[in-house]
Amino acid sequence: MEAFVDFFGRLGGLLTYNPGEPMLFSSGTFWVLFLVFMPLYGLLRKRLWQMVAFVVAFSLFFYYKSSGVFVGLLAATSLFDWGLSRIMSRPGRSRAFRRGCVAASLTASLGILAYFKYANFFLWNLNATIGSNFQPLDLVLPVGISFYTFQSISYIIDVYKGRVAPTATWLEYAFYLSFFPALVAGPIVRADYFLPQIRQNRHATRTEVYTGLWLIILGVVKKAVIADYIAQYNDLIFDAPGAYSGFETLMGVVGYTMQIYCDFSGYSDMAIGIALIMGFKLAQNFNFPYKSQNLSDFWRRWHISLSTWLRDYVYIPLGGNRKGTARTYLNNFATMLVGGLWHGAAWKFVFWGAMHGAGLAVHKASKPWLGRLPDSWPVRALSWLVTMAFVAVLWVFFRASSWADSVEIIRAIGRDFSLSYLPAFASARMVWLILMCVIIVAHALPTGFWEKASAWFVRSPWAVKLLVFVVTVQLVLELRTADVAPFIYFQF
User: Do 110 and 156 meet the contact criterion of CB atoms below 8 Å apart?
Assistant: First the structure.
């Protein structure tokens, strides 16, 4: 009897939301549920609408396990936007009416996002300005709200402009908006790219299944092996600004630069891999951004789905580069300000976005002069170093708890920096240094190397695939932290 009760207790824990243990791709709970999901999904592949309904149900359950009752908010958003898209697409609707539908959708989507994400930021600034005593609201930010809000916005605008036809059923739209691999941390999915894939109902090929598995393994290594381990030291530095030497602080800043890349690109790899196994293709989200030799190239390689979204739905509507040089720079700056605010409701994120906007403007203005420099190894190396230093310093504002902490960390690097700390640091942090070297070398390898590695894994015998999988699991077990660390971009 006790075993019976214990079994159902464990099952109940598996199926109910636990705020302390949200659903993560790097958690065992997700993979247990996914192993149950895939056979049922395979059985329904030939029955399009049953498959769609099943995936929507699983995606909503996945979001419930990630964010609790806010699954209702996601469902309501999908119903509202789908209904508006159908209404404004009926024949005979005037342009003014259709614009009103778009305005209603944007007001609802951005209003909900602003309430949960920016209400306390507004109240804090109001308190500081007029000396009032407003108390912060007791708000919990729904996981992934920024991602699915941007998807719903792009869908409504694309339907309005005739780029995509509105989905015939709510289920089809809910599939697009709640597709669980990309739901809580991207990549941001575009309707014109994804909706046709639902209608095609295409089965994954053998090559796609194994390529997806390869991407999942890479993602697990990046996130659960490298990012989570090196985060332990990085957190010490950022949690106690000024308490460590300049050399140790610099290592923490460089460490976080690599951590956020491994964390976020690892999640993207897993999301793309899971979708590929299911027969769906998600757009590339990272393309070795730390190889960039200028800031423009960095934003073509980093969080590509967000960069292209901001380009198409903010930069181009503002006028893009069609209204003169000064306006182009202003549009770049404004777009990056929006990108900074998208990441967080704090002045440090505004500063982060503003500096990237200013950096992009400076790079564009300098192109005539930069074009006269020789395309030599020293010039490329210096360009890379300047770009990386700029990006790494701004990551300090991204990670630190406050503006004051950010400034203190940067000051600490210059105040007490000495390479004499290196031997003692290497002795105490050998595994940290090894993992840092692994990701730096992996990033520096030619892109073709990773394409060949993927092709080798696909062609390899099942015993080799099993060995790679077992080694990956063993690395996770050896280097895991006490708790499963959430993905950094869950907070956005």
Answer: no
DSSP string spanning 407-446? HHHHHHHHHS--GGGHHHHHHHSHHHHHHHHHHHHHHHS-
Cα distance from N-terminal residue to C-terminal residue, the chain: 45
How does pLDDT run across 84-115, given as a tens digit for each residue? 999 998 888 888 899 999 999 999 998 988 88
343, 356, 363, 443: which is the annotated catalytic residue?
Answer: 343
Query: How far apart are alpha carbons 390 and 162 in whole angstroms?
Result: 40
Enter the tokens of residue 79.
């119903």
The Cα 187–Cα 281 span in angstroms is 11
The answer to whether 115 and 123 have CB atoms below 8 angstroms apart is no
Neighbour tally for 105: CB within 10 Å: 24
Give the whole-angstrom CA distance, residue 42 versus residue 457.
Answer: 23
Distance CA 361, CA 325 (A): 10
User: Which pLDDT band holds residue 204 (cuts at 50, 70, 90)?
Assistant: confident
pTM as predicted = 0.89
Counts for the chain of helices (H) and strands (E), in that order:
22, 0
Mean pLDDT (the chain) is: 86
CA distances from 224 to 67, 128, 144, 467, 474 (A): 21, 40, 20, 18, 11
The reply to whether 303 belongs to the active site is no
pLDDT, tens digit (0-9, with 9 covering 90-100), for 223-282: 888 998 999 999 999 998 888 888 999 999 999 999 999 999 999 999 999 999 999 999
| DSSP assignment of 43-73 | HTTTSHHHHHHHHHHHHHHHHHHHHGGGHHH
Q: Give yes or no for a contact between 166 and 177, defined as CB atoms under 8 angstroms apart.
A: no
User: Smallest Cα–Cα separation from 161: which of 98, 108, 100, 110?
Assistant: 98
